[in-house]
Design goal:
Layout lengths: L1 E7 L2 E6 L11 E9 L5 H6 L7 E2 L4 E8 L11 E4 L2 E2 L5 H4 L10 E2 L12 E4 L2 H4 L1 E2 L9 H6 L3 H11 L7 E5 L3 H12 L4 E5 L3 H10 L3 E3 L3 H12 L3 E6 L4 H10 E9 L12 H5 L3 E4 L4 H13 L11 E4 L3 H9 L6 E4 L1
Parallel strand pairs: 11-12, 11-14, 12-13, 14-15, 15-16, 17-18
Antiparallel strand pairs: 1-2, 1-4, 3-5, 3-9, 3-18, 5-6, 6-10, 7-8
Helix pairs in contact: 5-6, 5-11, 6-7, 8-9
């Protein structure tokens, strides 16, 4: 099969790889219908050391089940399914309490002999615990929004939930990437009355306004912090940081009110941050982290199916699988917000 493999910074190739096969009785083989490039894929794209073996890429996909192992009971060949961005058994103690991201038997696509999602097919471990069957066909117009449940929409929802967003709240979302925009959707869905979006790309922030953002702040750094404080009368109780840079964290901490909450969604590209006496005295709650996407998909699926939310709008260009390297370049150059890939 054809699949995207990263061999180093800026070096993504579509190569021939072995077709996936059932290895364990809990596996399923899924023929990919749609996948995408994630903003987190761009971090290794900018910095990964060169390697001869390469790393299969992609952790967001949906497709049709082709084959199941002997222990799989909830899925059959022909089912259309969406895959959360990590696989999990859904039976361990972490999974039972809704923290599938920490599954004791789970893992990540593209590692430990498991295929990446940016290819023609994937062997999915723990298929019953991981995959969610979709009640539509593979030609449904809803596929982009259903694909968004694999990661960006469930991640945005995780940020809103961990920040404690509730009806009538004022919320700050730092970052106008796909996760940030889906966070706007999530905050609006949970009833936030005012949503300030910190971002400077007009096309993206325009989409953010359509999703529910009431204010946009384009300034960055200290100027951005001052502008947000001015807009909100001193700061915000609930901040969701959806970038992962130190500057974004500083913006979040600089705008959150004492006693408020900062939820981090962006994968941190820094090792140290401000957690000393000044932050201690402010009684700030720091929360968030990697989303347990599998826990959120059933709840959000209903709203996608009835059109209440349309996160698939973050996909602004579609690439054939053979053009996956172009998709990476386009996203890295900010020519594309989020690239959808069709095998």
């Amino acid at each position: 099969m054809r699949a995207a493999v990263m061999y180093g910074a800026g070096d993504v190739r579509v190569v021939e790889r072995p077709d996936p096969k059932i290895v364990n009785p809990s596996d399923a083989v899924v023929r990919v219908v749609a996948s995408c490039v994630c903003g987190s894929d761009l971090w290794p794209y900018r910095s990964m050391p060169a390697t001869d073996t390469g790393r299969p890429m992609g952790h967001e996909f949906l497709g049709v089940v082709e084959e199941t192992g002997a222990d799989v009971t909830g899925l059959t060949a022909g089912d259309l399914v969406v895959a959360p961005f990590t696989y999990s058994d859904d039976t361990c103690d972490y999974c039972v309490k809704g923290l599938q991201i920490s599954c004791r038997n789970g893992g990540r696509y593209g590692f430990d002999g498991v295929d990446g999602g940016q290819g023609e097919a994937v062997r999915v471990p723990y298929a019953d615990g991981t995959l969610v069957k979709l009640p539509v066909g593979a030609d449904s117009a809803l596929l982009p929004s259903l694909l968004a449940l694999s990661d960006v929409m469930t991640t945005g929802h995780h940020g809103a939930v961990t920040a404690g967003v509730a009806r009538g709240d004022t919320v700050l979302v730092v970052g106008d990437g796909a996760v940030g925009l889906c966070t706007v959707i999530a905050a609006e869905r949970l009833g936030a009355e005012r949503i300030v979006l910190a971002g400077r790309h007009e096309v993206r922030t325009g989409l953010g306004r359509e999703f529910g953002a009431t204010d946009v702040v384009a300034e960055r750094g200290e100027e951005g912090v001052a502008r947000i404080r001015e807009l909100t009368g001193g700061g915000v109780e609930k901040v969701i940081e959806a970038v992962g840079t130190r500057q974004a964290l500083d913006t979040a901490l600089g705008t959150v009110l004492d006693g408020g909450t900062v939820s981090r969604l962006g994968v941190p590209q820094y090792e140290q941050g401000p957690i000393g006496p000044a932050e201690f005295m402010r009684n700030i709650t720091l929360t968030g982290g990697a989303s347990p996407a599998r826990a959120y998909i059933p709840e959000l699926l209903a709203d996608v199916l009835d059109g209440t939310i349309t996160p698939g709008r973050v996909f602004d260009e579609t690439f054939a699988l053979d053009r996956t390297p172009d998709a990476y370049r386009a996203m890295a150059d900010r020519q594309v917000l989020k690239a959808l890939i069709r095998p």
